[in-house]
Amino acid sequence: MRVAKAPTVSDGAIVVADNGMHSWRSLNRFHCDSFVRGTATTMNGGGSVTKIVSIHSFRGGTGKSNTSANLAAQVAATGKRVAVIDTDIQSPGVHVLYGFHDDTPSPALNDYLWGKCEISDTAHDVTRSVNGAAVAESSLSLVPSSVKPSDIARILREGYDVEALNEGFRSLSNDLQLDMLVIDTHPGLNEETLLSITISDTLILLMRPDKQDYQGTAVTVDIARRLAVPELLILVNKVPSGADRATLVADIEHIYAAEVAGVLPLSEDVAVNASAGLFSVTQPDHPWSQEIRKVAARLDV
Fold first, then answer.
1. How far apart are the C-alpha atoms of 14 and 86, rounded to whole Å?
2. Rounded to two decimals, what is the model's pTM?
3. What is the CATH number of the domain that holds 253?
4. Residue 4 lies in a domain
5. How are beta strands 124-125 and 81-86 bridged, if at all?
6. Cα–Cα distances in Å, from 197 out to 67, 203, 241?
7. Which of 119, 226, 229, 289 has its CB 3.0 to 4.6 Å from that of 27, i.e. a possible disulfide?
8. Digit-coded pLDDT (tens) for 16-60
């Protein structure tokens, strides 16, 4: 199965273009069930429920991976068992925030999708990245995607079975007895992105106060509602210091009829950090870090 490209909304359905061909995938609830809606409410190996949180943006450059990594760490720091999985297979990057600068740890998600290993083999313990913020029960795992050019080229050339990714989410939740699975998605909309949205308990849409982001977010909100996502939250990032925060939040909530879970300031300190570690852990008193913790608490695991 090849990775689908460039979905567009049309008359209650979504057109997924794949190598010049088009297939119609209904967004009715029964179709969501065929993609195994309910993975989000699967009992994990410890007898409790794994909450699945997808973090998505319509456009790249919103700070999605940085946000995903920091949110996962802050939830784990409260004593939860958390894993973050990098499904941005075409342009992976979450691993850098957990200290893997030169290469991704092996095996990676690619190896599982190609049938080389079990999904649990790709989960690498990164609890150390939470440092002193963690409590004894904290557990944080990372499932990276390979950054090797040959592996990325193979994905682009051959694609992979998206349903195997769905099964991987379920198995990982069970094998690691997760309280929360955080999915860092590929920006835009394609088949694996639709899968992540479909199975989520909570979808966090990351956007900037930018006209292009407003338009793209509107498309994603519409699709998320057609897929009957249980909880839709908006997280606004890179907000200039001079912006009227209250007015911004009110406008966005009115436009999308969705809760704004947080407003992350445009921060030179975060930019200077340049993904060299988890900013919310190394700079816990910074306003950006405080807002990340507020959003983590809002997820209510």
1. 24
2. 0.85
3. 3.40.50.300
4. no
5. unpaired
6. 17, 7, 31
7. 226
8. 434 332 233 434 433 444 344 444 445 555 556 899 999 999 988
